[in-house]
């Protein structure tokens, strides 16, 4: 996760404590945005896949056209 701080933000904070608060606030905003991503689940066993719903099907393992995200674990799928 990359947190970007501009030169203006650095210069506009009066001390390191205030700058640290800014960085921490940006970190939590970014972390909360990242955690809100919705992950696809296997249509067979229901396990959460490592793919978000906005991941193109060409870049997924186990996607079944017409059915949805199949198990990416192969034979380890708990049916």
Q: Would you give an account of this structure?
A:
The chain has helices at 7-12, 16-35; strands at residues 39-41, 48-52, 63-64, 68-69. With 79 residues, the protein is an alpha+beta fold. The protein folds into 2 domains: 1-36; 39-76, no CATH class. Strand 1 and strand 2 (48-52) form a beta hairpin. The chain is rod-shaped, with a radius of gyration of 20 Å. The chain starts with 6 loop residues before the first helix and ends in a 10-residue tail after the last strand.
Oligomer: single chain
List the total number of helices: 2
Task: Give the end-to-end Cα distance, rounded to a whole number of Å.
Answer: 35 Å
Unreliable residue stretches: none
On the 0 to 100 scale, the average pLDDT is 85
Would you summarize the structure shown here?
The chain is of the alpha+beta class and 79 residues long.
Secondary-structure blueprint:
Elements: H1 7-12, H2 16-35, E1 39-41, E2 48-52, E3 63-64, E4 68-69
Antiparallel strand pairs: 1-2, 3-4
């Amino acid at each position: 996760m990359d947190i970007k701080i501009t030169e203006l933000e650095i210069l506009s904070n009066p001390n390191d404590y205030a700058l640290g608060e800014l960085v921490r606030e940006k970190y939590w905003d970014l972390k909360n945005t990242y955690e809100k991503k919705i992950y696809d689940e296997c249509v067979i066993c229901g396990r959460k896949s490592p793919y978000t719903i906005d991941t193109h099907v060409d870049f997924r393992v186990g996607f079944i056209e017409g059915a949805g995200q199949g198990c990416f674990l192969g034979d380890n799928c708990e049916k």
